[in-house]
Amino acid sequence: MTFKKTVAIATAAGALAAISVPAMAFENEFHGLLNFNTTFSNFQDGGSGDFAIANTAEKKQMNNYIEQRARLQYIAKASDDLKMVTQFEINNRFGNINTVTAAGATKSGADLSGSDLDADGLSLVTKHVYLDFNVGKNFNTKLGIQPYKDTIKGLFIDADIPAIMTKTTMGAYTLGAGFTRFADDAGTTGSSTRLGGADKDLFMLDNTFAINKDTKAALSYYFLADYGTTGASSLPAHTLNQDILLSTLALSGETKLAGISLSGFAAMQAGHQKNFVGTASRKFHGYAANVAAKMAVGPGTAKTAFLFTSGNNSANARSYKGWVTSSVNSYNESGMMILARNTGNSPSSTDRYVRRNVTNIALLTMGYDAKLTEKLYANGNLGLAWTPASGETARRADLMGAELNVETGYKLYSNLTLAAQAAYMMLGGLYSDTASGVAGKDPAAPYSVRLHAKYSF
Amino acid sequence: MKKLIALLVVLIAWLTAMPAFAAPLRVFVVEMTAAGGQNKDEMKPLLQTLLASRLNGDAIVAVGSISEADVVVAGTYVTIGKIFSLDAIAKTSAGKTLTRAFVQGESQDELIPAVGKLADKLSAELVKMYPAAPAASGIIKNEQLVRPVPVGEFIKPREQEQGAVGGWLSKRLEGAANLIATGKNLPDGGREIFLAENRRLSYYRQGKDMKLVAETEMRTSEKIISLDTIEAGDGGLDIYVTIIRSDELASQVWQVKGDKLVQVAENLPYFFRSISLAGAARKLYAQSMGRDADFYGDVYEATRNSSNITVKNPIKMPRYGDLYSFNQLCDRDGKIFTVAINPDGYLIVYDQGLNELWRSNDKFGGSELSFQKEDADVRTTGNKFRTIFMNQRVQVTSKGEVLVGKNDGFFVIGDARSYKKGAVYCLAWNGSSLDEKWRTKDTQNYMPDYLFDEARNELLILQTVQRPGISTRGASSLAIKKVE
Asked: Which of B28, B349, B381, B414 could be A457's S-S partner, Cβ–Cβ 3.0 to 4.6 Å?
């Protein structure tokens, strides 16, 4: 190689390095958490889903178990306008041996839990993987598996979804428009083998308007097109050719008046399911509404809220009056631990509530979050729940019961909180005399006592 | 040849003597005490001024505050009958007596010449004792960045090599303060200083030492996120304490009345900041909090009338600009540019249309101070509170210099922040980018806040010497450096 060539190559390498300088703006952002959760409960069992109180035992033994959940989030920021977000999760329950083979299998399969002797499990799962980029100043797009929560406090959908989401901002007005395909039943018995032929698709349109600094309003429209062959866990069950087309229209608002934060929403559903009664369709008429208030009082915050989600009390098979959800929703505002899903109280895999799918419930809650010192806090919540549709038991009473829960925590370090929780539900008339196996007896009242260590960064 | 050698020796001697002239001895004259005679109160500041101006010379410079002085001179003026006596004592800033001198006279006509004689006597003694030492203010200028390789096995901090400690350093102050603001200058050369911890406001008088005068504690549910002072309409001093309580702004205004802090307004729904935009006169500005936006809409000029805040003259914010992250600078042609520090710590300069013109390659900023709002998606983040970090403030001097703090940390990941050292950088707009003019030496601790007192040309650097623990409030210290 001649000297000239060497100089030329060196110059080119230098020029490349110079061109690469903007890559120096590349930012690595990390977040993560570790929740450690010890549970003593007669209804929580490390699993997820609704807990049906009726027809459970009069005396239930207490479960005691220890869980942990770790999350690691890595964000690769190429610039202010382009980033890739990934988040992974590791869930374990001490001693749990969960293999990839069928239920009841021995340890012959790969260990999914990694929580037994000598660990070594395959317990890493993907939570989020998506691309987040801006086109110009006012248009943002998110592509991939991402978190989404509706504008009605999560009552329709609060889940991680594979989606294409866009957000257009024009001054005080924001338009969120997106699409998710959260199930594809192609190839299941009798269905089309064509990908995209037997899906559950959801289209989302969120119009948000910040009227002034203290008030905002949102009008949302969600359209569920379920061409699948099976119902998702909590969606209305159906088989092949029983497609569901469901529209949800929701108006919500939030304002601040005389030091009180007020918020609420009203939502209605309309739609149909084909071939439900013979060749006849059934219609959907679901409703949900909420109002909540929050204000600073003394050393903390006082909260109260009321939620109504309709239940299906229709005797006509061609009419469904229950509030239909995406099957994964939430109602965090309640502060409940037993009655309704509050993701704040699902720090690990345990995600069991009387209404994990929050529908068919009227719930009045009151709570107070007190900051006793800079590091010590104590919260208390009381909830009273009724069921709008009493189909759950043969009883005529609607009162599900009252939940009382308390939590106290200590911020040992700025990122580490040690907390203790206790919750108890007094059963209402709805569950009277519904104990399994013993006539005239009530089921055991659900309770849970939990000890947490929560670390996040 | 001999002549040449002699000439060289003279030249070398002259060159080595140069630094001695470069940094005169800094002397501060405190207000004199007066006994006997008439108009005592008027005489005290008068004699202070007379003596200070007469001490000022080639070898001695009379400085305006005790914090920047190497030597402190105190004096007494005594009149008995027609005879007066002026007595002075010079001490080091640490309190060690250096010398005494006196002059006496028989009538008031001789007073002013007597002050001159006293100054001559003191100067002569001080110059003898203090062959002038080069200043070590803790400011690193660009031309000083390249240091000679130290000879020997031990590497000493620069200021120790030079045998002088720059600036003024407070003793350990109880409580890990996050924020600093200054109040009025005191007659003895000191100043009022206000420090804020998470929920405690402390009022100090800084002279030779930091003396805690009063303090007040907020509710457990309140957190102080900004501390600002501005002259009130009645000539007093308003202390604006921006507070977050239960997700909402509940700011307060305090005043000093005697030796007490008195609250004059509360529950104000604004973020407040007193700032000199583009180096102009300091004014009070305010911004609101929105339902979704942490910092909502424009920044406004604000005025207070009792408990009412009136806002006017909105200023549009650029991307990443908010009340606490922005400032303005003015170029030679009088064009106004906006400068802001973004959440990643890059300084960004925007043109009049708020379009980005330039962005730093180095990171600045960094603060452990934050507030929380209970609107996080707990399912995603695992925490129902969302943390919003404050950043280092950007100050702009009347000369158009941009000052910004910078903290470095060993563990700064996500919402976990633990910085270990900080510095203040001074940059100047050259028409296309911000050039570094100087920076301070790194502190040995996290620097939560800094403040540039342009009238006195002093930089006040707050440091956290101990973080709050399970049962302790932590501790701070304050360093004051002269910007030369």
From this structure: B414
Interface test with B, best of A85, A213, A254, A334 (most B CBs within 10 A): A213
Does residue B464 contact residue B445 with C-beta atoms inside 8 Å? yes
> Which positions ≥6 away from B74 have C-beta within 8 Å?
B29, B30, B32, B33, B88, B89, B91
Contacts of A147 in chain B (CB under 8 A): 377, 379-380
Query: How many CB atoms lie under 10 A from the CB of residue B361?
Result: 11
Tell me if chain A has a CB within 8 Å of the CB of B248: yes
Q: Which two tokens stand for residue B406?
A: 């910078």
Q: What is the spatial distance between Cα B44 and Cα B41, in angstroms, rounded to a whole number? A: 6
Burial A156-176 (b: 16+ CB within 10 A, else e): bbbbbbebebebeeeeeebbb
Q: Can you tell me the distance from the alpha carbon of A19 to that of A12, in angstroms, rounded to the nearest whole number?
A: 10
Among A259, A294, A330, whose Cβ lies nearest the Cβ of B379? A330
Q: What domains lie within chain A, and their CATH numbers?
A: 36-73+126-456 (2.40.160.100)
B316 touches chain A (CB under 8 A): no
B52: tokens are: 């200070």
* Nearest by Cα to B69 from B25, B133, B33, B130: B25
Chain A residues closer than 8 Å to B291 by CB: 210, 213-216, 254-256
Q: Report pLDDT digits (tens) over B318-345.
A: 999 999 999 999 988 889 999 999 999 9
Nearest to A210 among B291, B380, B383 (CB): B291
> Which pLDDT score is estimated for B476?
97
CB-CB neighbours of B386 under 10 Å: 18
pLDDT per residue, tens digit, chain B (484 aa), is 555 555 555 545 444 444 444 467 888 888 888 887 777 777 777 888 888 888 888 788 887 777 677 788 888 888 887 788 888 888 876 677 888 888 888 887 888 888 888 888 888 888 877 765 444 556 666 544 444 545 556 655 554 444 344 688 999 999 999 999 999 998 888 899 999 999 999 999 998 899 999 999 999 999 999 999 999 888 889 999 999 999 999 999 999 999 999 999 999 999 999 999 998 999 999 999 999 999 999 999 999 998 999 999 999 999 999 999 999 999 888 899 999 999 999 999 999 999 999 999 999 999 999 999 998 889 998 889 999 999 999 999 999 999 999 999 877 788 888 999 999 999 999 999 999 999 999 999 999 999 999 989 999 999 999 998 888 899 999 999 988 7
pTM: 0.82
Task: Check A299 against B221: CB less than 8 A apart.
Answer: yes
User: Which residue from B minimizes the CA distance to A372?
Assistant: B220
A-contacting residues in B 79-98 (Cβ below 8 Å):
none
Label residue B214 exposed, middle or buried (CB < 10 Å: 0-12, 13-18, 19+): middle
CB contact under 8 A, B220 and A372: yes
Q: Where are the domains of chain B?
A: 19-129, 168-482
pLDDT digits (tens, 9 = 90+) for A401-413: 999 999 999 999 8
Is-contact B335 B352, C-beta < 8 A?
yes
Give the residue from chain B lying closest to A137, CA to CA.
B319
Label residue A14 by pLDDT band (50, 70, 90): very low
pLDDT digit string (tens) for B144-156? Answer: 444 454 555 665 5
Predicted confidence (pLDDT) at residue A55 exceeds the cutoff of 90 = no
pLDDT at position A1 over 50: no
Alpha-carbon Rg for chain A in angstroms: 25
Instruction: Tell me which architecture the domain covering B168-482 has in CATH.
Output: 6 Propeller (2.120)
The listed CATH number (3.40.350.10, 3.30.2270.10, 3.40.50.620, 3.40.50.10070) that belongs to domain B19-129: 3.40.50.10070
